[in-house]
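Reviewers of the previous submission asked for a worked example of the structure-prediction workflow described in the proposal, so we include one complete record here. The input consisted solely of the amino acid sequence. No template or homolog information was supplied to the procedure at any stage.
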Amino acid sequence: MKKIYLFLTLTAMAAFSGCKKNEYAEGTLSPVIAVVDLKDLYKGSDLTLNAANLSGAKQIGGVVISDPRGANTQAGVIVVQNLRRNALRGIAIEMGAAAADYKVGDSLSIEVTGATLTRVNGSMRLRGVAAAAVKKIAELKVLNMRTVQSRVLIADPDAYENTLVTISKAVTEPEPQPGDTFSGDKTINDGFGKVTVHTEATAGFAGEAFPASANFTGIPVIAASAVQLWPRTINDVFELPLIKPSAVIIAGYLTDPNGADGNYEYIQLMATQDIDFAVTNYAVVTCNNAGTNPAPANGWAVGATRSYKINLVAGKVTKGQFFYVGGNKNIWGAGSTDISAAPWISSTQYANVAGADFGTATSNLLANSGNVAGIAVFRGIVVNATTVPLDVIMYGGNGTVYAPGPPEIGYRITNTDYYSTINPATRLTQGFYGGGTNTSKLTLPATGAFTQLGGVYDAVTGQWVAGRTVTSIPLTRTSPLSTIETGTGFTTLQN
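From that input alone, the workflow returned the following structure tokens.
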């Protein structure tokens, strides 16, 4: 019986402590409530804040991210964000003329008792905060800034509104014409969705030319259920050179054929223009980083058991056509459907012969488990530590594949739907997978399935207007070629 009483007591204590959302010190309620918890109090109608609904708290803390110098902000409003309980959240605060007194990086303590939590045109804010209720604690604080894909921002605007974010590698739609300026609303597309960039006509940079491609930083504002990005100054927009289109893009791959991997794995590629490989050579390199290895000093040319190179030096394909590189021409291992009718630019017995220039014979061209692996396409057949690929994808687990140096070493990347050679936060060069923000990787393939990388690629601009996403297509020994080429979700070309 004593054991039962002890269990019930411990359970009650755990339940009570689990309900405490605010910060406590030795049983005393914290006077500070996190912005994430403050926003959770809003249930669809105006709420006047008091000690009861604040659970004893009376103030919030935050760092100012709005910038009155650019004049691209909601009139009389400051925007602060704070990071508490591993949640970065922000809120707009109506301050009237006093809003101009606060600068980017000011750390504030704000008394919120008696203020009203409300929404204005869909965007949450605090109303009724007196100037005397705001105390400056420090200046020039470092700002937390998140890089976010547009689809994530659109799917969960409440988590990002009134915080500082960057949408990277976005292009303007339609392409700006001479005389087009920031003023008003412009649509940008980062390959994962479309977001409106809003600039007030009175903003200091409203008359500046709008870029065709850039990393766009700003404050997301919900406007009539849609989300807009408001740059604070012209410095929030970092113009990028337009991406050079690639003639070959990676569209899918088979990593786990029926029976055994040796000589039956393959990569599906797509031509974005007509190609005669005898005239213009290309190369495909795969990397496999099983076990414990150092970062590769020679990058994709590391060779041995870690990378394998296949040269594409003969054959022709036409724009928009799928073609294949790999082992035997079967859809799912030995004895399965013969797909030799498809364009095979290289059918290499990789389990029996060494790679072109580097790579030992291997029964595992494409990893199907374990550490991170990858595929890269190169123009020409010379691949070394300095060669930059045309297209690249990485997938799988972790493993040591990057070292910051100096000098930096690892697998080089290029500008794709998942990687960027410019860090959107620091605006510094980042040329390797694992360096800076280049940490995205696709999931490991499903057992016995073809990995479809469905996206939409603009053959003129080189932009992924819809980024590649993974879909596993189950295969059988009798699956026809159409299983991995036709239907919904396959890579397609625009223009």
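The domain at 243-495 is CATH 2.60.40.1260 (Immunoglobulin-like). We consider this example representative of the routine output the project will generate in years two and three.
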